[in-house]
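Consider the following input, taken from an annotated entry for indole-3-glycerol-phosphate synthase (Selenobaculum gibii).
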Amino acid sequence: MLDAIVAKKKITVEQEKKYLSLKEIQKDISFGKFALSKVMRNSPWSLIAECKLQSPSKGRLCTNYTVLELAKIYEKNGAMALSIHTDEHFLGNLADIALVKEITKLPVLRKDFIIDEYQIYQSRRAGADAILLIARILSPAQLKEYLHMAWEIGVDCLVEVHDEKDINAVNDTRAELIGINNRNLKNFTTDVQNTLDLVKYCDRNRTIISESGIKNREDIERVKKHFIRGVLVGEGLVKAANIAAKTRELSLVKGF
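Applying the prediction step yields:
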């Protein structure tokens, strides 16, 4: 499934370039302020709350709220940052980033499959404070190149890893934000144990978070014991009976 998504993404990006060239985009961006890394660096615990409406493996996840409504709930209940999907497989839209930025002061991460430098500048033009770089779909050279491209325009990068090989590639860069994904890319199941198994290979001087499969305070306490500084949660929030309460729970809001 991942290979199919990436193949389609390459076609989509080439089509987008015909509509608006890279040079035109580069002329129309303002420099970012590394908002995501600043927030996470200054907080002992960070919840990156994801406005996730759909999953390519599970279908529609949330029908009661829009992306904007989820963003408002998350901000009011302790989230430190927001993750906005912009890929069609997740019912995402690039325009959602600007809309969310109008109603919230939280840093916004663009969640997509970044496979071309065009998308880095496109992300900043749309208003993203940070982008996701998936180590699995990039060569080590691409990873380094894209990190520096993003940093040159004030955009943070959350680098996603799935195994020890990915981590070795990331450790060879200056990436500050590392996300250990708990999703098995072969069968799409999730297991928080993946974070506990892989964190030992990570450079502890970086900010490490756990992604996918986080459901409750128990999961939070498990990863916190292993120097994890935060979590990125989508499905665990949008499928909760009370999204506001679940956000407070995973944000470690005092008194919950």
